[in-house]
Automatic annotation (TrEMBL):
GO MF term set: ATP binding; phosphorelay sensor kinase activity
Lineage: Bacteria, Pseudomonadati, Pseudomonadota, Alphaproteobacteria, Rhodobacterales
Superkingdom assignment: Bacteria
Annotated organism of origin: Roseivivax halodurans JCM 10272
Keyword Transferase: yes
Protein known as: histidine kinase
SUPFAM superfamilies, alphabetized: ATPase domain of HSP90 chaperone/DNA topoisomerase II/histidine kinase (SSF55874), Homodimeric domain of signal transducing histidine kinase (SSF47384)
Alphabetized PANTHER family for the sequence: PEROXIDE STRESS-ACTIVATED HISTIDINE KINASE MAK3, SENSOR HISTIDINE KINASE
EC code(s) of this entry: 2.7.13.3
Membrane-crossing segments per the record: 9-30, 154-177
PROSITE patterns noted in UniProt: HIS_KIN
Coiled coil: 215-242
Catalysed reactions, as listed in the record: ATP + protein L-histidine = ADP + protein N-phospho-L-histidine
Pfam families assigned to the protein according to its UniProt record, in alphabetical order: HATPase_c, HisKA
Keyword terms: ATP-binding, Coiled coil, Kinase, Membrane, Nucleotide-binding, Phosphoprotein, Transferase, Transmembrane, Transmembrane helix, Two-component regulatory system
Length: 460
């Protein structure tokens, strides 16, 4: 109950209403005291009329008038002269004088609080203005016992009424909150739990029904999110099925094409001029097909294994990559260069780092070969404050617009005819596995530059 939204709202409402009632209680008690004293002044003024009506007044009548008025004496000021109208023995000294004629609100509140906390009975003088302009000033002397008792009784009634109002208000608000807020919120939570049990089931998507604007907005947002998620899950399932089918087909097709490659070795020995002319094209086509199947199978794996980080000499890795590319270049007019500090050590997975650089250098080599002109490929690196920066640049023709727009998208970012576009997608995944980034820094007629940034992390 206490930990629920409605329970806490009930408690807070009760506290705040009681606080408001206390703030009302203090000036109310001050006003009650002022009215009490003014009533005593009015009674004393009425009692003094008997003294004004005759020159002498019977002592027993005077005592009865003062008793009914609840005072010990009455002083009336008329025409600038103070006149003792009624009097009786005063049982002590006057401890305070209160002037109600020009008392401020703060003064009345202060005096009322002082009277409540002072339990001792005292004699006080009270000054006020006569009603109906029956004089300039009226003064009475009275004790404070009855005043304090009346103030306490009034205060208890106010507090009791405040408590009833607070509880009633809190209960009404509690019921209203449960009806207008808690119940709709529980309904939304129930829909979320029901949807979470089977997110692929479109029938479990929430249908907005709330009348409160904020809750309706929340339901609309939840409905959109659930709809998008259901569609994404369906798409993911279809893609998973398609990926499995493609992987199986690619696996079998790769085996068939590999066998076909073996047969081409025999075809190359043929003396038929037509066969000699078409055999290289057939071999290239088979090679590209096998490469595509292998790339598809590699990309179709569930995920790349997590990198096993160790201290790697980058210059040694780059030398291995460039040496392998030298063999692939053959007689083509392409030069390879490395600008790596000999003692530059990285924290990386050596095998994955080799694959990253090999893919980028291979792409650069194929781009230059495709242009038919001489070119150069350079791998450079340097150490920065928080990591390492590696550049792979070439002087090739640059990437076409389609390749730049879909650079790291599988099967879409191929830069050359017959390319699968998987190379850069795989490279980006490997770089991200190291916590780094792969960016295309520049691409144009003068060449292309890829930049790899690897974080240093807890390097030691």
């Amino acid at each position: 109950m206490i930990n629920s939204l409605s329970g806490r709202f009930l408690i807070l409402t009760t506290i705040f209403v009681m606080l408001a009632e206390v703030l009302i209680f203090v000036p109310s008690v001050a006003r009650f005291r002022e009215s009490y004293l003014e009533t005593r002044l009015e009674r004393a003024q009425i009692a003094s009329l008997a003294a004004l009506a005759s020159d002498t007044i019977d002592p027993s009548l005077e005592e009865e008038l003062l008793l009914n008025a609840g005072v010990y004496n009455v002083v009336l000021r008329r025409d600038e002269a103070r006149q003792l109208m009624l009097a009786s023995p005063i049982p002590g000294e006057i401890s305070a004088t209160y002037d109600l004629r020009n008392a401020s609100a703060m003064t009345l509140i202060r005096d009322a609080l002082m009277r409540l906390v002072t339990s001792e009975q005292q004699l006080v003088r009270v000054i006020g203005s006569p009603s109906r302009e029956a004089g300039l000033q009226i003064e009475v002397t009275m004790d404070t016992g009855d005043l304090r008792t009346a103030m306490i009784e009034y205060g208890l009634r106010i507090l009791g009424l405040s408590a009833v109002i607070s509880v009633l208000t809190a209960c009404l608000l509690f019921l209203a909150v449960r009806r207008l807020l808690v119940k709709p919120i529980k309904s939304v939570v129930s829909h979320m739990q029901n949807y979470a049990a089977a997110p692929e089931d479109a029938r479990r998507i929430i249908q907005p029904t709330a009348t409160v604007r904020e809750l309706r907005e929340a339901e609309d947002a939840l409905q959109k999110m659930q709809t998008d998620l259901t569609q994404a899950l369906r798409q993911k399932e279809r893609l998973a099925q398609l990926g499995g089918a493609v992987a199986r087909v690619s696996h079998d097709l790769r085996n068939i094409l590999t066998s076909a490659q073996l047969f081409t070795d025999r075809i190359e020995t043929s003396e038929d001029p037509v066969v000699k002319r078409l055999a290289p094209k057939l071999i290239n086509s088979l090679t590209r097909a096998v490469s595509l199947c292998e790339s598809t199978l590699a990309f179709g794996r569930a995920e790349e294994p997590a990198p096993v980080l160790s201290h790697v000499n980058l210059a040694e890795v780059v030398d291995d990559v460039l040496e392998a590319e030298h063999l692939a270049i053959g007689d083509a007019d392409i030069s390879l260069a490395a600008d790596i500090p000999p003692n530059l050590m990285l924290r990386a997975d050596p095998e994955q780092l080799h694959r990253i650089l090999s893919n980028l250098v291979k792409n650069a080599r194929q781009a230059i070969l495709g242009s038919g002109v001489a070119g150069e490929i350079t791998v450079s690196a340097r150490s920065e404050d928080l990591g390492w920066l590696i550049k792979v640049s070439d002087t090739g023709p640059g990437l076409p617009a389609k390749a730049r727009d879909n650079l790291f998208k599988a099967f879409q970012g191929g830069a050359r005819k017959g390319g699968s576009g998987l190379g850069l997608a795989i490279v980006q995944e490997l770089v991200r596995g190291h916590g780094g980034t792969l960016d295309l820094a520049h691409s144009g007629p003068e060449g292309t530059v890829f930049v790899i940034r690897l974080p240093m992390g807890e390097w030691s």
